[in-house]
Amino acid sequence: MALPYLEGVLGFMIMLYIFETYLDIRQHGALKLPSLPKQLEGVVIKEKFEKSRAYGLDKRFISFSSHFHFVHEAVTIVMDIAVLYFGIIPWFWKKSGDFVSCIGLNAENEIIHTLSFLGGVLVWSQLTELPFSLYSTFVIEARHGFNKQTIWLFFRDLFKGICLSILLGPPIVAALITIVHKGGPYLAIYLWAFMFGLSILMLNLYPVLIAPLFNKFTPLPDGMLREKIEKLAASLNFPLKKLFVVDGSTRSSHSNAYMYGFFKNKRIVLYDTLIQQCKNDDEIVAVIGHELGHWKLKHTVYTFITVQILSFLQFGGYTLVRNSKDLFQSFGFNTQPVLIGLIIFQHTVIPVHHLVNLGLNLVTRAFEFQADAFAKKLGYGNSLRAGLVKLQEENLSAMNTDPWYSAYHYSHPPLVERLTALQEPDSKKED
Questions:
Q1: R_g of the chain, CA atoms, integer Å
Q2: Residue at 240 is within a domain
Q3: Which of 58, 110, 141, 372 is catalytic?
């Protein structure tokens, strides 16, 4: 007797939706609290707190705009369930094969058939997500002063993203299908090796070739800020090759900073909005000190290795079920295309994915505390506290967070927890 794979997947999707909605309701209650957490009283400007409450409620909960998050999630779950329950995926797979035949190509060629299928999925996903993206960007983000992009820039970015998908997708899909057909008993190893090589390639190409298609990167001008960052990097033997400012303000007033690069070719990128918002250079340097803490403590290496292990285990699981006729038939397929097998497998291991993501969140939150402590040991404790508060205020991030919601969704600890950790006794020796 065939196992009810499809019914199991649908049941878990519904239970997960109910659970996440419950967490959203809990967070809704936290956002509605009229006062700051005790630890933030006198630290966060009251006006910024009120604005962050309004932004959080508007973005996620409170009118269509007031129920934007709930509407989006409800529409998404209904569509996902309908697609699976009514057999739309196998129907669309058949139609994509018919389309290939109509234009004179060989529908028996799995690579061509798969690309036709993915092309239709791309069009469908863009059409269904576009109204929500437009509303989020030009209504909610604009209402709270974050959106800076024009409608022309929005659609230009969308067009560039689609073009990149069309350019990069076919060779990757062709390679995956070929590997699966020829992989034999070592398929999991070959799939992992291919994705490992692809991830290394993209980590190198993205900042150099892809990111500049969307943003302008310019060297940070000479001055005190550049000198302080270079001095800090040199003191830690961080191989800083380039220090950039990215024009994030052309799209949003949200701020951030990050670093990237392998081995002796490290680069740091500052959002121009971060420089504008943090008038004190030491606050920016403290934020960079936190990021360098991740590097010095090898958090990026540990994270990369963990991802590779999980990727290998995932491909190993896929190889165990890829030839299961019962699994494919449960989802309405009489054939066993490679891409469909990957999609079905992803659906069947959703519970595992969520447990793994929860575990990774716990680890990355611990890493954040460690990086904060590292910056504090460098003597930037007070500056980091001020910088974190400034980023929280300027980005209108939630000041009150429900502990369950935070543990499930946040990869970074809430501001209250980070400030509390930074105020440990040894902070008295600083600055």
A1: 24
A2: yes
A3: 372
Residue among 58, 291, 394, 402 flagged as catalytic: 291
Contacts of 121 (CB under 8 A, 6+ apart): 92
Domain count, the chain: 1
Residue 254: which CATH number? 3.30.2010.10
Please give the Cα distance from 138 to 148 (Å, whole number). 9
Over residues 258-274, the pLDDT tens digits come to 887 776 778 888 888 88
- Within 13 Å and on the Cβ side, how many CA atoms surround 148? 11
Pairing of β 257-260 and β 266-271: antiparallel
Looking at the chain, the number of H-run helices and the number of E-run strands are 18, 4
What range defines the domain where residue 233 resides?
217-277
The verdict on residue 229 lying in a domain is: yes
At residue 426, the pLDDT reads: 61
**pLDDT of 412-423, one tens digit each?**
888 888 888 888
Closest to 246 (Cα-Cα) out of 283, 213, 271, 266: 271
230 catalytic residue (yes or no): no
Q: Residue 196: is its pLDDT beyond 80?
A: yes
pTM for this model (two decimals): 0.82
Residue set of the binding site: 290, 294, 368
Do the Cβ atoms of 117 and 93 come closer than 8 Å? yes
Annotation marks residue 372 as catalytic: yes
Alpha-helical (H) ranges within 270-378 are 272-277, 281-296, 299-321, 325-330, 338-348, 350-375
Binding residues for Zn(2+): 290, 294, 368
